[in-house]
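Study the following:
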Amino acid sequence: MSGKPYASASVRNAAPILSALRHEFRAAASVLEIGSGTGQHAVTFATELDHLTWQTSDLQQSHDGIKQWIAEAGPSNVLQPIALDVLTATAMPASFDAVFSANTAHIMSYAAVCRMFEFAATALPEQGVFFLYGPFSRDGVFSTSSNAAFDESLRARNAAMGIRDLDDLDAMARRGGMSLLRIYAMPTNNLAAVWRKRGDDECQ
C-alpha cells in the first residue's frame, strides 16, 4: 500500500454505499465529501460515478494520506483536499449539487454535527442532497447491543463523541430547509440517511 493510510471499513462498506449513491447522486455533477479520512471512499466512488466531480476535504493532518490515494489510485474527477473544519468553515451558497459524509457524526461533538448540517444546507442548491452514513439510534433506541456498546466506548474515550439519534439529525436538517428522503439499511448495523434541500415553494 506504499505507506498509504488504510481503513478496512472503507472496503467493507463501499459496495452498499455505492449502490445507494448511484441512485441518490444520479442527477448531481459536483459533490463535497466532508471528512474524507483516508481518501479511499473518494477514489472508489468517483471511479464508478465518473459523471461527478468529487471534492475531498478534511482537517489538514489528513491531507497527505488523501493525496496519496488520489495520486496512486484516483481518477481525474477527484479534486485535491481542501481544509475544512465544520466548526469554523463558511460554505459558499449552492456551491455543490450534493454533500457526502461517512462515519463522521459519531466522532464529532454535538455542536460540530449541528454545524455540519448548517454547512451542508448552505452549500446545497434547491433539490441538492446530503448523504450521511454511519451508526445511528432511532427514537432514542439502539438497534443492537453492539451499537449501544460502541456508543458507550465512544463516550468513555471522549465525552463529546457518541452515536447520534436520527430524530435529532432530522431536526437539524429541517432547520436548514432539508427534508428526509430515504433511509438505507447498511452492513454492520449502520444506516445511510438522505436529505434533500427544499425549494421555497415546498411545504415545510
Summary: The two ends are 48 Å apart (CA to CA). The longest helix spans residues 110-123. DSSP finds seven helices and nine strands in the chain. The domain at 8-197 is CATH 3.40.50.150 (Rossmann fold).
